[in-house]
Amino acid sequence: MQLQRERLLSETDSDSVRRFIQECVRQAESLELSAKGLIDEERRNLIDLLFAAAALACRLRRSPRRAASIRIRVQSEDSAQPWEEETEARLISRHGALVGLRHPVKIGEWLRVVRLENGREGQARVTWYRRKRRGQREAGLEFTNCDNFWEVDWGALETRA
To answer: Sign of the CA dihedral 25, 26, 29, 31?
Structure first.
């Protein structure tokens, strides 16, 4: 993810790395399950490879990001202190968004997101949060009950990257 953040790894490269890791995992699993002549040390090495590949795969983004300015309404689903505000999604992906907020949130908190231009609703979990200067806040949201909430042709974006 550091390579992606620093723009040293494009979304296309990221996808290639993800496919490479998946193929490594598939072959290591196949070897580990089917090879009868493996000694314990070889089997441990394959298992270590699987764990390392899984850890690396977790650090890669699942889909490309796209700068946006999409008006949304965000509603807290916390019954103790409900709130609602209109804001915008600033950066979107197939699985979520970066949004600006006035209200504080906690990682793991559930929010309802409504697109103002078409009324489409989705449930999102806060996966990242930071407070900026002058009381501004940003949160990373992951949609849990819908795919492609933003209705973007992500395939077209991935081929251009």
So the answer is: negative
What is the tens place of the pLDDT at every residue in 24-33?
Answer: 777 877 776 7
| Helix (H/G/I), strand (E/B), else coil: 56 | helix
- CB 28, CB 49: distance < 8 Å: yes
Domain region containing 10: 2-58
12 and 49 fall within a common domain? yes
In a domain, 158, yes or no: no
Which of 14-23, 53-62, 100-109 is the least confident region?
Answer: 53-62
- Residue 92, classed as helix, strand or coil, is strand
Pair (54, 69) in one structural domain: no
* pLDDT of 11 above 70: no
Question: Within a 10 A sphere around the Cβ of 38, how many other Cβ atoms?
Answer: 14
- pTM assigned to the model: 0.61
What number of other Cβ atoms are within 10 A of residue 133's Cβ? 5
Q: Does residue 49 sit within a domain?
A: yes
Same domain, 88 and 120: yes
